[in-house]
């Protein structure tokens, strides 16, 4: 780069800091007028600086920022490999699809094999199972943790069961060590959906480090954001290569963009029935996708990565404020509890209206929404009731009563770092206002 270009880049980045201060100054919170969001992006000038710096390279595909982000993300979790992709949903698809590779021999997942998952969750934990011709086995969850019990998971294992794929519900860890033991006992793959749980720990071990593969989401609602983005993580080099292949068109080559001959024999391979010496960059060992990210997205993610400790601390603090503030209303609400021996990095604060409460979940939701307090349901509720799965072959363990209760009576509100104490005080005041006069 010329010295003049360097000077101009420096001037541009100085202006970006000024722009951030002018454009994104904090607005005043006005109760009843300002929306108290359930989630949102939290950023400062550093994210804009990274984004603009990347854009000035005009390297529009994966590049230097993506490579650095992958290294630092893996290091932050104590794992060997992180592979960025374009969403957490794609991360789930890549993680499970990698396990269908013929290179895994007798352990590969094949159509008709069963994968254990939970009924009360988000569809993209389940969809990769369906899309690969596998059979989801739905288990129920328990209140107040909203995670499956080990007893339920154990009861779900059948002669065709080959894998477990479950998420840490709203960042509350399931008993991951027991899931690992169950998987080992039955020779099952374990895919750990950590999209809602970055920074959570179970028995002092970070979630996302228990599974054969784990996933993260970097959608704006999640713990850190790239706008759109996700990652698959693993400690196993042989699985890293498979995920990378499925992410990058299914190719056999592992060269970085713009590089050639990393393997040292680009024209020396013979695979399938291709002629000897066919260019390795155009040999495809899997039926894959293109699910990569741009370097500009990765640049934003890299800036966010440094903020994880403060983001996690804020989520825990906000959750505790809501938990303490709603404790007087347990006659109406089932309040959430962390899984024993866990320290969640909470994604949201969930409550379930008790069956004998003198009001419905929908009445409470309307009260909050009319007062500019955003609410969400626990994703798809009981997924077996969703129209998307009407013609899907699946198996259930029991009648899923807790998942039905969640579908009918649960809601959650935000704890993300963009919420202030005045906002949370307002939320608690509105809960109290709704409950006033409803005691027998």
Give a written overview of the molecule:
This protein is an alpha/beta fold. The chain has two domains: 253 residues, Type I PLP-dependent aspartate aminotransferase-like (Major domain) (Aspartate Aminotransferase, domain 2); 127 residues, Aspartate Aminotransferase, domain 1. Helix content is 37%, strand content 13%. The protein contains 13 helices and 14 strands. Strands 1-9-8-5-4-2-3-13 form an eight-stranded mixed β-sheet, sandwiched between helices. Strands 7-6-11 form a three-stranded antiparallel β-sheet, with no helix packed on it. Strand 2, helix 5 and strand 3 form a beta-alpha-beta unit. Helix 4 crosses helix 8. The N and C termini lie far apart (75 Å). The model has no long low-confidence stretch (mean pLDDT 96).
Could you state the oligomeric state of the chains shown? Answer: single chain
Give the count of helical stretches: 13
Strand content: 5-15%
Main structural class: alpha/beta
CATH architecture of the largest domain: 3-Layer(aba) Sandwich
Summarize the structure.
The chain is α/β, with parallel strands linked by helices and 440 residues long. Helices cover 37% and strands 13% of the residues.
List keywords for this structure.
single chain; 440 residues; alpha/beta; Aspartate Aminotransferase, domain 2; Aspartate Aminotransferase, domain 1; 2 domains; eight-stranded mixed sheet; three-stranded antiparallel sheet; 13 helices
Topology:
Blueprint (H helix, E strand, L loop, with lengths): L2 H21 L21 H13 L6 H14 L3 E5 L2 H11 L15 E5 L4 H9 L3 E5 L10 H7 L4 E7 L8 H11 L2 E5 L7 E2 L2 E2 L6 E5 L12 E5 L2 H11 L47 H11 L2 H19 L6 E2 L7 E2 L5 E5 L7 H10 L24 E2 L4 H9 E4 L7 H15 L5
Parallel strand pairs: 2-3, 2-4, 3-13, 4-5, 5-8
Antiparallel strand pairs: 1-9, 6-7, 6-11, 8-9, 10-12, 12-14
């Amino acid at each position: 780069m010329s010295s003049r270009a360097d000077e101009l880049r420096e001037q541009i980045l100085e202006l970006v800091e000024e722009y951030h201060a002018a454009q994104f100054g904090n607005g005043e919170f006005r109760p009843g007028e300002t929306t108290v969001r359930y989630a949102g992006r939290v950023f400062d000038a550093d994210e804009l600086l990274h984004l603009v710096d990347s854009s000035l390279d005009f390297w529009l595909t994966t590049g230097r920022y993506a490579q650095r982000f992958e290294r630092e993300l893996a290091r932050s979790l104590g794992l060997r490999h992180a592979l960025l992709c374009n969403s957490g949903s794609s991360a789930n698809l890549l993680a499970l699809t990698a396990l269908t590779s013929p290179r895994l021999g007798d352990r590969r997942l094949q159509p008709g094999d069963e994968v254990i998952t939970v009924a009360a969750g988000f569809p993209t934990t389940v969809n990769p199972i369906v899309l690969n011709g596998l059979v989801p086995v739905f288990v129920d969850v328990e209140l107040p943790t909203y995670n499956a019990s080990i007893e339920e998971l154990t009861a779900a294992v059948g002669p065709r069961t080959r894998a477990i794929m479950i998420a840490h519900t709203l960042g509350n860890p399931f008993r991951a060590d027991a899931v690992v033991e169950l998987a080992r006992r039955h020779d099952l793959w374990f895919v750990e959906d950590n999209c809602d749980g970055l920074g959570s720990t179970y028995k002092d071990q970070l979630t996302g480090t228990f599974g054969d593969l784990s996933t993260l989401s970097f959608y704006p609602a999640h713990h850190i954001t790239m706008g759109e983005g996700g990652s698959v993580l693993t400690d196993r080099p042989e699985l890293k290569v498979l995920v990378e292949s499925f992410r990058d068109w299914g190719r056999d080559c592992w060269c970085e963009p713009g590089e050639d001959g990393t393997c040292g024999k680009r024209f020396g391979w013979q695979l399938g029935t291709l002629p000897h010496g066919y260019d390795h960059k155009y040999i495809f060992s899997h039926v894959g996708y293109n699910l990569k990210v741009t370097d500009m997205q990765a640049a934003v993610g890299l800036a966010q990565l440094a903020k994880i400790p403060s983001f996690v601390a804020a989520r825990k603090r906000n959750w505790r404020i809501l938990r303490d503030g709603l404790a007087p209303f347990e006659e109406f609400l089932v309040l959430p509890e962390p899984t024993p021996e866990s320290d969640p990095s909470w994604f949201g604060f969930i409550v379930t209206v008790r069956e004998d409460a003198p009001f419905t979940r929908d009445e409470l939701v309307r009260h909050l929404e009319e007062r500019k307090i955003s609410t969400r349901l626990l994703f798809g509720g009981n997924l077996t009731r969703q129209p998307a799965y009407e013609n899907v072959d699946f198996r259930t363990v029991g009648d899923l009563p807790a998942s039905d209760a969640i579908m009918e009576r649960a809601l959650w509100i935000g704890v993300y770092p963009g919420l202030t104490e005045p906002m949370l005080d307002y939320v608690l005041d509105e809960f109290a206002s709704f409950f006033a006069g409803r005691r027998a």
